[in-house]
């Protein structure tokens, strides 16, 4: 299938690591050769998944004169662990990398400029929010409180380990390969970014340069402003230090009030972290790739909201629909399902017979529902793993997507044929056992249990 575009979604547990090969898209030595790109490399599920994925990736790439494997472009959608944890120096020293694109929000120069003046990007309030959230979560992590698996995973999103991956991406990979990291934003294309291609175009649809305006709103959110104003590392440490014997309680506050203060500080810290987490998702790089009359959409973890509101905090999907909607209304032939199948990352309405909504209009535009299943032409993949978060993946969403796609899978039938209980180790069995018989997009976790080679392949 040398004349077809290939997408390989590696099984990294809960995370994204996606390889795309575009046939004969670049010139080398007087001939056209395939273009090789990687979108993200991260996981919540452990290093062994990432090591296996990178090893498989290396085997798919051509060898260079230096003996390394050629990777023409790395795209990093956003800074979360499940998208960057695999960018380890030991793993990536085997690659010769031609270009690296990262979200405009990831530019380390933004911190030096306090969020302003770097290629026109405005992110001062977004950076302040991130700093407060990071301090809060790292302080919370240092207390070693028993907060449950999901909360521990959320807190670790702000861990120091992410700093190491960011350093690899923003400094080490560029230096090792003699290239410049490009911090991309909506409105740019591969040509603008110094990456000429033949027969293919890569467009950046998000994030917008004015991050504060579009994703936080023209004025600070009153709740976040109040939380940030009341939050200091010192007050946080005093309120959260645990345990505190009765004899050491502050003299000017009752035991019940002290515990209430501690609870409020925890709530404030988590509220800041949730807002920062959403902000980072909404600054995901979104790419549309055009090749051979096909349109592919890679969306990172971009979120959606009910409807676009100018000057208010918006989801990235809503901003894109209102500013770049013409590039979505043409529909897509491939969708990388966002945020591992979470309901917050694929705009939709869960009642197909309900009133029209902006979110529903977006999904109907990019993946129109065919009159009959046999008429479906688009494909999609979700890189997911049931077991960590209850809403991921959202069953009803994947069922809806399954009605819009070809190459879907009835996992109940596949399970029976293979003699494999796909839900054997799932603590959310009750959420899926009555739903497995519905056609749905290909899932990396279930395909692994059914004997995949460590990735899901789609050909266009």
TrEMBL record:
It comes from the Bacteria. InterPro entries: Competence_DNA_uptake, Metallo-B-lactamas, RibonucZ/Hydroxyglut_hydro. It holds the Pfam family Lactamase_B. Residues 35-88 form the Metallo-beta-lactamase domain. PANTHER family: DNA INTERNALIZATION/COMPETENCE PROTEIN COMEC/REC2, RECOMBINATION PROTEIN 2. This is Metallo-beta-lactamase domain-containing protein. It comes from Labrys miyagiensis.
């Amino acid at each position: 299938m040398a004349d077809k575009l290939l997408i390989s979604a590696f099984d990294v547990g809960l995370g994204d690591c996606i390889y795309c090969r575009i046939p004969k898209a670049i010139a080398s030595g007087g001939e056209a050769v395939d273009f090789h790109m990687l979108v993200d490399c991260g996981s919540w599920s452990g290093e062994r998944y990432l090591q296996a994925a990178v090893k498989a990736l290396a085997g798919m790439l051509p060898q260079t004169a230096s003996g390394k494997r050629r990777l023409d472009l790395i795209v990093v959608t956003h800074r979360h662990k499940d998208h960057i944890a695999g960018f380890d120096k030991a793993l990536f020293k085997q690659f010769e990398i031609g270009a690296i694109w990262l979200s405009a929000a990831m530019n380390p120069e933004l911190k030096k400029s306090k969020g302003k003046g770097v290629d026109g990007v405005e992110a001062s309030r977004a950076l302040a929010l991130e700093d407060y959230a990071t301090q809060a979560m790292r302080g919370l992590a240092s207390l070693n409180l028993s907060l449950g698996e999901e909360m521990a995973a959320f807190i670790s999103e702000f861990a120091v380990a992410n700093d190491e991956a960011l350093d690899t991406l923003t400094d080490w990979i560029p230096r090792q390969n003699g290239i410049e990291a490009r911090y991309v934003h909506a409105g740019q294309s591969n040509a603008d970014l110094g990456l000429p291609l033949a027969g293919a175009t890569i467009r950046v649809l998000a994030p917008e340069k004015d991050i504060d305006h579009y994703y936080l709103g023209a004025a600070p959110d009153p709740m976040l402003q109040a939380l940030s104003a009341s939050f200091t590392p010192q007050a946080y440490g005093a309120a959260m230090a645990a345990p505190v014997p009765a004899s050491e309680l502050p003299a000017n506050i009752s035991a019940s009030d002290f515990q209430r203060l501690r609870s409020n500080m925890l709530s404030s810290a988590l509220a800041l972290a949730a807002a920062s987490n959403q902000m980072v998702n909404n600054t995901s790089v979104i790419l549309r790739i055009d090749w051979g009359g096909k349109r592919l959409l890679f969306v990172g973890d971009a979120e959606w909201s009910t409807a676009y509101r100018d000057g208010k905090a918006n989801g990235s999907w809503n901003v894109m629909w209102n500013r770049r909607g013409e590039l979505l209304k043409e529909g897509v032939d491939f969708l990388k399902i966002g945020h591992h199948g979470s309901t917050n990352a694929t705009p939709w309405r869960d009642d197909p017979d309900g009133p029209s909504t902006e979110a529903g209009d977006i999904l109907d535009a990019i993946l129109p529902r065919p009159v009959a299943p046999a008429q479906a032409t688009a494909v999609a993949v979700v890189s997911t793993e049931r077991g960590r978060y209850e809403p991921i993946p959202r069953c009803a969403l994947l069922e809806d997507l399954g009605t819009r796609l070809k190459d879907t899978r009835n996992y109940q039938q596949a399970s029976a044929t293979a003699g494999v209980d796909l839900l054997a180790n799932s603590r959310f069995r009750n959420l899926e056992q009555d739903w497995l018989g519905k056609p749905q997009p290909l899932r990396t976790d279930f395909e692994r249990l059914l004997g995949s080679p460590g990735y899901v392949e789609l050909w266009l």
